[in-house]
Design brief:
Length: 134
């Protein structure tokens, strides 16, 4: 009888936990250039970008083979432009900075310290969007 109760408890626990695991947002990509994330220099390479907690859009980890960092982001929306899961970088004077994380078509996260507002006013700044590897 105790085995049956334990089995039911385990089944219920798995039933509650499995959807949380399935909702983990994990983006994998190859960044072909050195870049900065919220003031931290990151080398070119393969990166995993994911939420720290599943129910929190704000705190993210950018983790590579050689280095990583945690960032606090702010929510952004793009009602008229659709995005595939991707990262947006801004290039100014040959230096790249992570500016946005897009995990949904119209919802994303802005990364602090990227200088996007200032760079959009500067002549010659460029935006690069790198789609997530499947």
């Amino acid at each position: 009888m105790n085995v049956r109760k334990a089995s039911w408890c385990l089944a219920i626990l798995i039933g509650f936990c499995l959807p949380l695991v399935a909702q983990t947002h994990r983006l994998l990509l190859e960044v072909p250039f050195n870049f900065v994330v919220a003031g931290k220099a990151m080398p070119a390479g393969r990166y995993e970008v994911k939420r720290v907690w599943n129910n929190d859009n704000v705190t993210w980890i950018v983790q590579g083979e050689q280095s990583g960092t945690r960032i606090i982001t702010t929510s952004i929306e793009s009602p008229s432009v659709s995005h595939s899961p991707s990262l947006v970088f801004i290039e100014t004077d040959g230096r790249y900075a992570l500016a946005q994380i897009w995990e949904g078509e119209h919802t994303g996260q802005a990364v602090p310290g990227s200088g996007v507002k200032q760079a959009t006013l500067a002549a010659g700044c460029k935006y690069f969007e790198i789609s997530i590897a499947k």
